[in-house]
Amino acid sequence: MLFVIGAMAALSIDEVTLYTARSEAQLAADAAALAGARVLANSGMTSASSSAVGDNAVSLALAVATQVAASSMVGGRNLNPGASPCVAGQEICVNIPETGVDFVANPQVIVQVQRADLPTFFARIWGTTKVKVAASATAEAYNPSSLQGTGGGPGVPVAPMCVKPWLLPNISPTTVGGPIFTAVTGAIADTTLIGWSSTATNNATLLSVRCPGGNCSTTPLPSPAAWKYFPGDTTLTFTPAPQAFPTCAPALATAYEQSVGGCIQTPIACNNPTAYIATTDNFNQDRETAEAVNCMTHATTGGGDTVTVAAVPPTEPFEFVAGADNPIPGASGNDVMVSDSLVTVPVFDSGTVTNPTPNPVQVIGFVQLFLNPTGAATRLFGPNRDRIPTTVINIVGCGDGLGAASGQPILGNGASPVAVRLVSPP
Questions:
Q1: Which of 154, 229, 258, 374 has the maximal Cβ count within 10 Å?
Q2: What does the buried/exposed string (b/e) look like for 359-373 if buried means 16 or more CB atoms within 10 Å of the residue's CB?
């Protein structure tokens, strides 16, 4: 009887302890892999052609993933980070294998965790004093445009949330010119756009509305131009009412301002739904855009976040630094992983569009922008008023023809059009 009771106790208590620790190990691996992949998604490496971007982003992603795993408790204590590269028996092992050319094509973060000294209780009567638990996870920074030309096929499209109601034409503002994406396949046509920043004194490089005053109610609509957006219709494409307003939200009076300053939960995917240009009579959308951007980026008084780009193309992952007016306590002056100044903007196919611009338009990709990159507010008066300085962080193309991404879209984070997902089996 004693033997049977002991066996049952070992089975019930030790097995529960073992499975609890196994679940904790899996959560640690998942969190670490996703954190590392998020670093890669925000670095620009999935869109750039520079190997330096990939190499430096990988180093940072390895460090972040390791730190997240080391902050996780398994069986009542934190895991030990161990050495890099990994050696046999260490509790945390993070690996980012090279995929494609210079890490460009959808890099993956592989995390393996283990704890070999998990103590037992009743199982000690059979001489088993310690057991081992282990788990692994693989997360991916997914950019469908990176698959073009790598033999990986077109992949599936992405559907970011919190997309801003600005419809940008597929025209690059850099000196290279031409399209941002190959419209049919979604492949990136101008890789020099990554890390490109507006010139404060050059009106042509500042993001601004295409229709005079934002009023696109007159016909025909103006022909598309580089870095000149058409306001999106907040009653059709960018709806329902946005959420997650910043602290200055009461100043955002119109639905359009709220759509810029807040977060629209409806995902916007390539080809579905189709995006509509706002054709209502509104002569204030240029000013509304600037005011909403200053509110969202906490730059109204010049204390917004900043971004550091070492070179073009960038030679290190983008560094986001919190400004004096960043609402997170203690963040000012420190590096941050995300920023309210990071936004996603859809790009529509304008390659065959002349005058007038058709309405609706077809979304073929997205750009991730850092607004007001120097932390100063967009000017509301004087030269270049209502025009927004930007830095390009990432670009994602889906295409709209043969070879384009197709199928059920992958939901993405609003801060980046590059989706982060777990790809390892449960």
A1: 229
A2: bebbbbbbbbbbbbb
